Amino acid sequence: MADQDNTPVENDDDKNVSLAGGDELIDIMAFDEEAEPEPEIEGSEALEALQAENADLKDRLMRAMAEAENQRKRGERDRRDAEVYGGRKLARDLLSVYDNMQRALDAATDEQREANKSLFEGIDLTQRELILAFSKHKITPIVPEVGDKFDPEIHQAMFEAPVPNQPAGSVIQVMDTGFMIADRLLRPANVGVSSKG
After folding, report:
1. What is the 3-state composition of the chain as percent helix, strand, coil, each rounded to the nearest 5?
2. pTM of the full structure
3. Residues 187 and 153 in one domain
4. Owning domain of residue 54
5. Which end is more exposed in the chain, N or C (fewer Cβ atoms within 10 Å of the end residue's Cβ)?
């Protein structure tokens, strides 16, 4: 077996040197004399300065991470709100369609219903479809009953009147159905409220 020559052989890029017979490459740039040496820490003042800088950088990093987490949570909340409440304006506009259908059904007499049975069945079915579409988007009706206690969170008092045998502050008439969208009020139910006799 011939002796191997152990003289260094230069590469084309003149940055690495390989030793004949070896698989390792030695990076000449690692031994560059012009590279600035790390400053040596001398004395307790330099150590304290480095520790203060380290604490400041750690504080900034923690604040940046907290801000990024807050941004992520805000973005997630905004996305959820947009999914649930994004159609609020359209839903509010469609409430008048619901109201008009309800008025048509309420205003019809029994004779009119019999004479135009298929027409009123169509209106009723269309209103049910609208309510079904509302429920798919978490829009639910608020339908108070006569005698229910007035709740200012979900009811709007249109008038007050004394009514015998009704306690003050109870619903005596329902004029318009109210609606919720998820857990928020879309429109209050318009009601008449009993006052003190």
Report:
1. 45, 25, 30
2. 0.60
3. yes
4. 43-85
5. N
